[in-house]
Design a protein that fits this description.
The complex is a heterodimer of chains A (about 240) and B (about 300). Chain A is an alpha/beta fold. Chain A has four helices and 15 strands. The longest helix of chain A is centred in the middle third of the chain and has 12 residues. Chain B is built from nine helices and 13 strands. Chain B has about 300 residues and is of the alpha/beta class. The longest helix of chain B has 15 residues. In chain B, helix 4 runs parallel beside helix 5 and helix 7 packs across helix 9. Chain B has a single domain, classed as TIM Barrel (Alpha-Beta Barrel), CATH 3.20.20.70.
Chain lengths: ~240, ~300
């Protein structure tokens, strides 16, 4: 896997999350794709050994940004990076966008809101009407919702927006021709169930990854008859493809 | 091409096959989707192990990071040998293709060798002997010299003319190497991942029980290669934690003819490893082939 050293453009805290942006001189970033990133890599550091996968949060004028929550040493080091980080080129399959598809519902759970920002930008650019629903644990994690004007917010502890899950804050999803969602697997399975089989339903999964290019077979999700790799066959899947 | 670019002779010969570089991917670490990144780097391509029938593999989580390495438990997910062979052209980078096979019985292994050896695109076969032998209570085929000898002899008979590599785990490697050589293996791959366990203390559950790979295992692999090189006459494909060009040189000095790069390819561009190895050779004033066993 090829890594590129890129310059950090900005780092800022969004409540419980960190927003890190960097100059990306390469190809345009499409919504739903992801990147493997690390503070520094081989041979500078062997521990942490693997890079971490992040959905793109946004991309504008050659600046890509990632949204993450510090959960372990890999993200802690990224959070402390000051000048450069190392990233791969954009990876994976992103969201399909159907301009004739009608109104879209976008649902994000926790850090799973990440790919929705760049998706909102793309939908707006293409003139596709959409509604955004974001679910969080509490008002600290919900702070990022300020970046989504007009979004409907829910928190599990009731400290911001509707008290409950993102689905408690969303209307009948079966009425939407297009549904996009990203979050924990349990939330995605609930969205799949609530959205029903009609229309375009796309789920972006969050899996533990080793390589990011299909080689290690570590990041699989269940489909009928077996497993597929979320890094090359996903991370965005048609809801009907996933055996949840 | 890289030879001309660096002025260093990177070629090596393995069982009568000339390889443009001594680097070969370790089985299960190079997807066809990633081949574009390694054109010109590897002297041969070695796809993920194939088995008689399709295997869905293990449920996630399948990988866990560890200090200087990772533990994986993939469960030999693959589409089965027939579909694998249909798709083999996808691995054609203009260099030899080595095919890794695994079965649950000696008969499985022999049938796989017979099946793939008849195909002209297959330059050699690597026997993945770390899978459970169902006829022996689930111990692996590397459980001891007798099991190794049985399976290698059966494969030798099934594929009399195709170069056969026996891939061995580090445990009991010297005795198993001797057994594989005497049963007719043309080369030995040393070593596979090391059985390991990771635990999620927060959830109080096992995270991944599988095989440890990465730089953490390198000294163990080097010793295994060194021990085997002093025991057998057949060539060795060495590997285990190879992460830099100097690591490649170390494995060759320990006695490897070819060096497998696996987990490191997840975190580095293997082309950089080859470039570092070329720089090492240039400074040493040696060609790659001269390095094997050249410890002072």
């Amino acid at each position: 896997m090829k890594f590129h050293t890129v310059e950090i453009e900005e780092r800022r805290e969004l409540g419980a999350y960190t927003l890190l942006s960097y100059r990306w001189p390469g190809e345009k970033v499409e919504p739903g794709r992801f990147v493997m990133a690390r503070a520094a890599g081989c041979p500078v550091t062997l521990d942490p050994f693997l890079a971490r996968p992040f959905s793109f949060y946004d991309f504008e004028d050659g600046v890509a940004s990632l949204l993450f929550e510090v959960r372990g040493r890999g993200t802690a080091l990224l959070d402390r990076a000051t000048e450069t980080i190392e990233v791969t080129a954009p990876l994976g399959r992103g969201f399909e966008i159907d301009v004739s598809g009608g109104r879209a519902a976008l649902l994000g759970g926790g850090i799973g809101v990440a790919p929705l920002k760049i998706l909102v930008r793309e939908l707006a650019a293409r003139g596709i009407a959409h509604d955004v629903f974001l679910g969080f644990l509490d008002n600290r994690t919900a702070a990022v919702a300020a970046d989504f004007p007009g979004a409907t917010v829910a928190t599990m502890d009731g400290s911001a927006g509707t008290h409950g899950t993102v689905l408690d804050a969303a209307p009948d999803l079966t009425a939407y021709p297009t549904v996009y969602a990203c979050g924990p697997n349990a939330m995605l399975a609930a969205v799949k169930d609530a959205a029903g089989p009609e229309g375009l339903r796309q789920l972006s999964v969050e899996e533990r990854m080793g390589c990011g290019n299909g080689s290690c077979n570590g990041c699989v999700v269940p489909v009928d008859g077996g497993y597929v790799r979320s890094c090359v066959e996903g991370p965005v899947f048609r809801a009907e493809a996933l055996a949840w | 091409m890289r030879e001309r670019a660096t002025g260093v002779d990177l070629s090596v010969e393995l069982c009568g096959i000339t390889l443009s570089t001594p680097l070969v991917p370790a089985s299960g670490t190079l997807a066809k989707e990633a081949l574009g990144e390694v054109d010109g780097v590897y002297g041969a391509i070695l796809p993920k192990t194939t088995t008689p029938a399709a295997r869905v593999g293990n449920p996630p989580p399948r990988v866990a990071e560890t200090p200087a390495g990772m533990v994986n438990s993939i469960g030999l997910q693959n589409p089965g040998v027939e579909r694998f062979m249909e798709d083999l052209d996808a691995f054609d980078l203009g260099v030899p293709i080595f095919v890794s096979v695994a079965g649950e019985t000696v008969r499985d292994f022999a049938a796989l060798c017979e099946r793939v050896s008849g195909d002209g695109r297959v330059a050699a076969i690597e026997l993945n002997l770390s899978c459970p032998n169902v006829e022996h209570g689930g111990l692996t085929f590397c459980a001891g010299p007798a099991a190794v000898e049985d399976v290698v002899a059966a494969c030798r008979a099934a594929a009399p003319t195709k170069p056969l590599f026996a891939k061995l785990t580090h445990e009991g490697v010297v005795g198993n190497a001797r057994a594989a050589e005497s049963a007719g293996a043309d080369a030995l791959t040393v070593m596979n991942t090391i059985p390991a366990l990771t635990i999620d203390a927060k959830r109080r559950s096992v995270l991944v029980r599988g095989g440890l790979s990465g730089p953490a295992v390198k000294p163990i692999a080097l010793k295994a290669v060194h021990d085997v090189a002093r025991t057998v006459r057949v060539p060795i494909l060495g590997g285990g934690g190879v992460t830099s060009g100097v690591d490649v040189a170390e494995f060759m000095l320990a006695g490897a003819t070819v060096v497998q790069v696996g987990t490191a390819s997840f975190v580095r561009d293997p082309g950089e490893i080859l470039a570092e190895f070329s720089a090492y050779l240039r400074e040493a004033g040696m060609g790659a082939a001269e390095l094997t066993g050249a410890l002072r």
